[in-house]
Amino acid sequence: GVAVHLQDLTRTYGATRALDGLDLSIEPGELVALLGPSGCGKTTALRILAGLDVATSGQVLVGGRDLTRVPANKRDMGMVFQAYSLFPHLTVADNVAFGLRLRRTSTSARRARALEMLELVGLGQHASRYAAELSGGQQQRVALARALAIEPSVLLLDEPLSALDAKVRVQLRDEIRRIQLEVGTTTLFVTHDQEEALAVADRVGVMNAGRLEQIAPPVDLYERP
Ligand code: ADP
Ligand code: ADP
């Protein structure tokens, strides 16, 4: 079975064709990195999968369900963006629990789930600190914990490491991979950084001008028959 299928997606903004017939399938539990230069349509693809943008044509299938016209809040996606997405004046635990507030869970169950997720990302001991007190890398771990807390059908990572310095970027990249393998969440990771894509992904999809040029495991990517 296929977990995610983006089918012949186009998206135009006036005269700009952000997506021009994008086809992409992701297997259950797989981490696919979408790689490509700025402006090639990576973020547009991710936003359409998230329900934050609407395709001009084409379909979005998740777990065999057609979500093309399903709004973002009914889609069950976990998202991590570039940076600054936490509430700085909430504690780390409250930030993680925030995503669970609309679900039918008790305060204590939300709290327990938040702590479990913070242990997973190695921040259990920081649960009671304010988000603003953490480093950029730690804040991104919290954002990851928050995204995973809802047990998303798909985890969407949009340049989650771009705002971090080089050393932290490599550490967190490896950490994201470890956690993703442990949890087994189907993941789409958008990046313009080739080394990063090759290091984290089961398969790397190379985008150009709104479509997928090739998609392959990192070891096969630059070998042409
Ligand atoms: P990437 O994520 O690969 O940098 P994007 O998906 O952000 O690319 O953008 C693809 C193209 O669509 C770019 O030319 C961008 O300027 C354009 N674009 C994206 N969003 C909008 C928008 N809301 N309005 C107009 N143009 C947009
Ligand atoms: P990224 O660089 O991560 O792809 P951008 O900074 O390009 O993201 O886009 C951030 C937001 O601005 C998105 O909502 C995108 O749709 C919008 N956007 C991008 N390009 C344009 C554009 N040319 N005109 C209007 N909105 C845009």
Automatic annotation (TrEMBL):
Keywords of this entry: ATP-binding, Nucleotide-binding, Transport
Uppermost EC category: translocase
GO molecular function, one term: ATP hydrolysis activity
Enzyme Commission code(s) on record: 7.6.2.9
GO CC field: ATP-binding cassette (ABC) transporter complex
Highest taxon of the lineage: Bacteria
Location of the ABC transporter domain: 4-225
Protein name (Swiss-Prot/TrEMBL): ABC-type quaternary amine transporter
Organism of origin: Nocardioides currus
Span within the parent record: 13 to 237 of 355
